[in-house]
Automatic annotation (TrEMBL):
GO terms for molecular function: transmembrane transporter activity. The gene is frlA_2. It holds the Pfam family AA_permease_2. It comes from Escherichia coli. It comes from the Bacteria. The keyword Membrane applies. Keywords: Cell membrane, Membrane, Transmembrane, Transmembrane helix. It is found in: Cell membrane. The lineage of its organism: Bacteria, Pseudomonadati, Pseudomonadota, Gammaproteobacteria, Enterobacterales. The keyword Plastid does not apply. This is Fructoselysine transporter.
Amino acid sequence: MPRALIGSCLLVLVLYTLLALVISGLMPFDKLANSETPISDALTWIPALGSTAGIFVAITAMIVILGSLSSCVMYQPRLEYAMAKDNLFFKCFGHVHPKYNTPDVSIILQGALGIFFIFVSDLTSLLGYFTLVMCFKNTLTFGSIIWCRKRDDYKPLWRTPAFGLMTTLAIASSLILVASTFVWAPIPGLICAVIVIATGLPAYAFWAKRSRQLNALS
């Protein structure tokens, strides 16, 4: 049983809930709703701390964001690498650096693409684009568990209790986030996300067919 994973998720849930309660108690709801930096703005309402707390929280938030970005840089290129190794993507993404043993081509191309998006779009549109794509991807990932459970060769080391309920809640939560994205996200980012999602499925079907053909020849 993955006790560390469950424990860390519960800890993060408790901390985020406490943070939300503290912020909502410090700052009026009308100001909180219109604030672009709610955490730092809320702490400035503490008389003993004032603006110093806001600066500290802003720096802390930057460190957390950099940590999150670092994790994305670590895992995302390895997805393309794994797909390339399974003949589901371009072979160049499967290249490994001879010295650092990292998927260098995948990391460089992903970084270049991210820099390109920053210059050609605004932050809000990018946030809407990635939020919609990630939430839709999570929905498909959660749904795949139902399909895997029906396979005879699916024998995981640990099975989630109340699997049907947990999967349903996860899918419903992701769909709610998908729907809410259409409320606040700019139209250009949503259009790009819909195009990527719509073309991603047939693209995967093409690569999967090609992979089966290559495996048949080998």
